[in-house]
Structures are given as C-alpha cells and as structure tokens.
C-alpha cells in the first residue's frame, strides 16, 4: 500500500469525492461527524450530502443553519419525502451525489485526518476494487469491527453467541474482505453501475450491506480494508439496545439472504432454526424462573417461534 498516493498530494482533486451521511434523530452525533470532516479532511470534498430521514430532533434546522451561515462549503441537505429505510437512504444519497467516488459516512463516524483520500487514491489505482474501508476504533482507541466474512449457514442456525465462541465466521486478515461495513466505506461510482444499488426491498435494514457486498463479489469486484488509515466509529450514548424488532429484523433478513444465495439449503436451515428457538426458549424460561433474565427475553423467543412459519415477517396491520 506504500505506492498509493498519500492524502494532501497534488493528485487529490476535491471534485473526486462526495461524502454521504445518512441521518435520523442523531443531531449530537451528526454535529460531531460534520465537525470532524470540516476540521480534519484536507482538501475538503467538494460535496457533503446529509440525507435526513424525517428527523424530529432539530437535525434539519441545524443543517439548514450550517448552510445559511456560509461556513460549510459544499454542504447539502436532502429531506426524504417520507420515512425510508437505511438502504433506501443510502441509495438516495448515491443518486444525489455527483463525484466519481462516494464515501458512505455515518453519523457515528469521526474523521481523524485526511485518510479518506487514501481510499480514493486506492480505488483509482486498483479498478478491480469496488470499495475500500479503514481501520475502525472507538473514541477510547479500542478496535471496532470494520468487516466480516460472508454469513455461514451453520453460524445462522446455531446462533451468534456460539458462532462467536467457535469463531465460525472469521474475517480475513489481509486487505481483501468479504463484507466491509458502511462506516465508512468509499465506493466507486463506475463499479456501482455494474452491480447496482442496495436492495431496499428485501434488505431495508439488516443485512443490506451483506447482500450488497455479496453482489459486488458476484460481479467480479473486490472489497479491501486499509488498516493503516484510522476512522472512529463510536455511538456513545446512542447505542442500539436489544429489542424484539431488531431480533425479528435480523432473522428475517438473514433467512432472506440464504433463500437468495443458497435456496436448496433453506429447508434444513429452517428446521435448525426451529430447533434452536425451542432450546433457547426452554433455557431462557428456566433462567427467568431463577431471576437471571428478564421476561422480555423470553417474550422475544416466543415471538420468533410465532413468526417462524412466515419467515419472521410482520403480520397484517403491523410495521411493514
């Protein structure tokens, strides 16, 4: 990687990069993310686009104020006409951007220097690479995940805890990775024209990046990570909590992934999931009786069993 031009070199053109930030009710994180870009990314990309997905916490007013002040050159606000999904907002941001390279930068990211330009230079040098991620840390300096292997059927059936314990889905250690998370990810517009945008219908939230990366690989492109460029990904006090909906979304999306890429194995996967839900329900019920886990955890497993025949999809009248 030493032959890739460093940030700040004469080869860097601000018009080469658009930064897209998908935002929903995270004004405090949005302010931090924007401040880090404007203070530390040099040269400043010609275009920074905030896609606001119906926020109600003052985020829109904050961005409008930034634009009106004239102190944030290149800043643009796109307000969604209705509440969209994560994948749909990413697609909208890419469609509204103009540069040949797009950085998908999330509200909980913090740019530490001009390293994003290393991603642009890397993609210019290696056109077979569709996207590049970076070393990711928390604000404390502790490492955070930046990539993963494609999901395995065994890992899905036995559950995430056992998968992590047995290391069934270990990411690669070299620059090439199966899945590189969009926090942040610099992608080539030319490559996107070959494999398309995210699938916002089948994967609106969970696994939207995993399906996208699988399609990238199937189109003959690679995804890499630059471990010598660091970016912060830290949600602070905005960390997502365990919930019924997140659990259902995960199972629905992951099953849809295997239906798409390993359809013949789906009956066996579904049988394994049914067995796991029953075992987990029995164990959690005993733990609840012993006062070790809250009843909400038991309720989620009951809900998974109820949704299992419909591939974990919502019933009529519930959230689409």
Key phrases:
2 domains, disordered C terminus, alpha/beta, 41% helix, ten-stranded mixed beta sheet, 12 strands, Spore Coat Polysaccharide Biosynthesis Protein SpsA, Chain A, 320 residues
What is the topological layout?
Blueprint: E1 17-23, H1 27-40, E2 47-52, H2 59-69, E3 75-79, H3 86-96, E4 101-104, E5 109-111, H4 116-125, E6 129-137, E7 143-144, E8 147-148, H5 153-158, H6 160-166, E9 176-177, E10 179-180, E11 185-188, H7 189-195, H8 208-218, E12 222-233, H9 244-261, H10 266-289, H11 295-307
Parallel strand pairs: 1-2, 1-4, 2-3, 6-12
Antiparallel strand pairs: 4-11, 5-12, 6-7, 6-11, 8-10, 9-12
In short:
This protein has helices spanning 27-40, 59-69, 86-96, 116-125, 153-158, 160-166, 189-195, 208-218, 244-261, 266-289, 295-307; strands at residues 17-23, 47-52, 75-79, 101-104, 109-111, 129-137, 143-144, 147-148, 176-177, 179-180, 185-188, 222-233. It is α/β, with parallel strands linked by helices. A hairpin with a 5-residue loop joins strand 6 and strand 7.
Please report which band the strand proportion falls in: under 5%, 5-15%, 15-25%, 25-35%, 35-45% or over 45%.
15-25%
Number of helices: 11
* CATH top-level class of the largest domain: Alpha Beta
What kind of sheet is the major sheet? 10 strands, mixed
Given the helix and strand composition, which structural class is it?
alpha/beta
- Which parts are unreliable, with pLDDT below 50 for 5 consecutive residues or more? 316-320
- The shape, in one word, is globular
The tally of structural domains comes to 2
Q: End-to-end distance, in Å?
A: 45 Å
How confident is the prediction overall: mean pLDDT?
A: 92
């Amino acid at each position: 990687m030493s032959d890739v031009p460093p940030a700040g070199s004469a080869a860097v053109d601000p018009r080469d990069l658009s930064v897209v930030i998908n935002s929903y009710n995270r004004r405090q994180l949005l302010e931090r993310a924007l401040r880090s870009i404007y203070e530390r990314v040099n040269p400043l990309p010609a275009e920074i686009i905030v896609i606001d997905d119906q926020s109600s916490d003052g985020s829109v007013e904050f961005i409008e104020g930034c634009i009106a002040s004239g102190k944030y050159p290149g800043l643009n606000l796109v307000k969604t006409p209705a509440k969209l999904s994560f994948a749909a907002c990413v697609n909208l941001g890419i469609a509204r951007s103009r540069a040949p390279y797009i950085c998908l930068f999330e509200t909980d990211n913090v740019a530490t220097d001009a390293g994003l330009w290393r991603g642009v230079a890397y993609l210019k040098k290696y056109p077979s690479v569709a996207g590049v991620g970076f070393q990711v840390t928390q604000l404390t300096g502790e490492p955070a995940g930046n990539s993963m292997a494609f999901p395995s059927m065994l890992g899905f059936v036995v559950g995430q805890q056992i998968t992590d314990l047995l290391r069934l889905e270990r990411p690669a250690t070299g620059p090439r990775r199966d899945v590189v998370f969009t926090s942040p990810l610099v992608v080539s517009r030319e490559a996107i024209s070959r494999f398309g945008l995210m699938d916002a219908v089948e994967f609106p939230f969970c696994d939207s990046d995993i399906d996208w990366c699988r399609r990238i690989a199937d189109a003959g492109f690679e995804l890499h990570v630059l471990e010598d460029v660091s970016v912060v990904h830290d949600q602070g006090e905005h960390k997502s909590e365990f919930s019924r909906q997140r659990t259902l979304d995960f199972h629905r999306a992951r099953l849809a992934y295997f239906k798409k890429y390993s359809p013949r194995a789906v009956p066996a996967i579904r049988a394994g999931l049914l067995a796991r839900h029953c075992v987990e329900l029995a164990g959690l019920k005993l733990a609840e009786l012993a006062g070790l886990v809250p009843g909400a955890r038991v309720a989620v497993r009951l809900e998974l069993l109820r949704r299992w025949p419909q591939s974990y999809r919502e019933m009529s009248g519930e959230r689409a």
